[in-house]
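Table S2 (continued). Query chain:
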Amino acid sequence: MTTASKSAPLSVWRPIATDTFLVGAPHYPEHVDESYWQRDADRMAAAGFNAVRLAEFAWHIIEPSEGTFNFDLFDRAIDVLGKAGIMTIMCTPTATPPRWLTARYPEVLRIDANGRAMSHGSRQHANLASPVFRAHSKRITKAMADHYRNNPHVIGWQTDNELNTSGSLSYGPVTLIEFQAFLKEKYRTIAALNEAWGGDFWATAYDDFDQVVLPIDYAPAPVGPTHALDYHRFLAFVTARFQHDQVVILRATNPDWFVFHNLGRIEDIDFRGEFSTDLDFLGFDIYPHLYDELQRVGGVGEVQALHLDICRGFTGNFIVPEQQSGFGAQPHISTVTPEPGEMRRMAYTSVARGADGIMFFRWRPAHFGAEIYWMGIIDHDDIPRRRYDEAKQFAGEVTALKDKILGTHVRMDLGIAGSDFDNQEMYRSYPIGMPSPQDDATLLHRYCYRHNIACGFIHPEDDLSKLKALYVPHWPKWTDAWTARIEAFASAGGTVILGGRTGSRDVNNHVIHDTSPGKTLSALAGITVEEFGLLPSIGGDGLVERDGRFGANTVRKKLPATSASRQYELKIGNAQVTAAHLYELLNVAPGTEVIGRWASRFAEGQAAMTSRRVGKGNVIYLGTYLSDALVEVLADQVLAPAGIVPLVADLPAGVETSIRESKHRRLLFILNTLGEAASIGNVPAGKDLLGDGQVRGGKLSLPAYGCSIIELD
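Corresponding output:
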């Protein structure tokens, strides 16, 4: 497997440096009688598994009382698994500190905005900013690392478990002290902080760092946006520092171990910094049916592709430490059960989108606790059924194909600017009623997914040369260095599309003093923004929804606001669409072409969309937000001329495609996400490596949830 010395710089194009495709499952031997262990190991080996993940919630077992360690249970489990050829990934168990720790050191508990301490008996209730908790985290990490230093069956480590998934916010006195120290290090003088935070507004200036408070919203009015931004920068710093404590220990103990983290719900993690550079690669836990139920962005296939493409944009290829296998539930959430063949299909979607390892969650379900109905590969009654058969089939196939899969990256023709922490948090700190950059990007990604266009997320600091076009979804923060990079991309023949309001704030979250989008972007795009205003969503009854927070202002009987009647039409070529969320009126410099104009109300005839030739390419400025209808127009009039076309033409709905490639090979994934057979035409020539379907004369027939990987000629 990989080691730190083999890890390349962060990039969406980075494969994992490995010759092993990890395939296996998270396993909890502590949840079953030891009489099951040998049978479990034998079944895993028969299924073709090569790895398990252990111990992420087992601190109380390993250290039953402070300073007393007992590794016996996991030593025996690792030995049984190792003799069957199953390697172990250990976890630092800090997501669930033992009860003796929180009872003896209650200051480690997170405190909510109302002053309530988190309760022991769940998970992630400890405060990552707490020096006391950090000390205990380092102590348990060192004890475990020292114990397994020379164990031949332990090949790597996962830090913690889904950091911040159950919450990252904390407002107690420990957090306040750490926040003040963070700000003092960042700003050095209180005058610099007051300038950055706009202390002259609402008399919010401080005389000393000891006066700084935590940003509690609506107490009684909103907090300053830079105050909020710096708090989330602090939380990201705290998260990276907490993980760094553990990584330093693991690296020093055995440099041959790989180290990664498994992401869950992504909150307060900055992937462009130490959090990611500390690791050999990222892991991302993917539960497609759960995300589909919670987020409703267009279907189970689309939500899985979206999440994986976002994750790949952080650091490149990844592993999936928790891949949905069956029905999943906690007391307040549940999913549908994947149908026969769907578990395997979802696993191949992960591979198609950049996974260099898959572990099915979980080996067997628990009979007790908050996840008794989170099903595993083996059922509660210890009988292997269709999920085991599918896991076995997948493991055999992917192991046979590992030399073709590993070392490849996912092709992208269209990149969407992503993976920038400040832009995410600047939006959150002051959204002015508009969708987030990610919401906007999701509309474009969904179109590309449904039309089988190679699309993903990429940071402007990454290598843009493999793209044909780049879309920037209304990033409020922009830097001159990024302008230089996208200018070079356009000069070489690329198409850049800048969304409205891009570049409108500076690094301190202040509105810039120059006319938007700022000097360098204005020069590159050949425009300035004369005026902007908000619009309702398509079919919306106003700009914002009232929630009753201000009592007398509550709208008891909802009638449309005046804004609902102010529909702004946008004409691009022969197409006309209704704009959503934003209008901008553009001043156009000589040499810049107007390709879209406002077609209604007072803005009629004024420039809304422009194109400027830059070298061999173009820079397009779009003075509004996306809508489904507008994306259709852009695809026809901007993306297609840039050479962005479907990977396979005229695919039926529900069939998805992706290409993984290197200098030596190209693998076309064609996956049927529906429970009915599909016939595909226009299939490029090549060899079907899976054989789910028959390729004859450019035609492929796939069964329900069928999968095809074609090595292209």
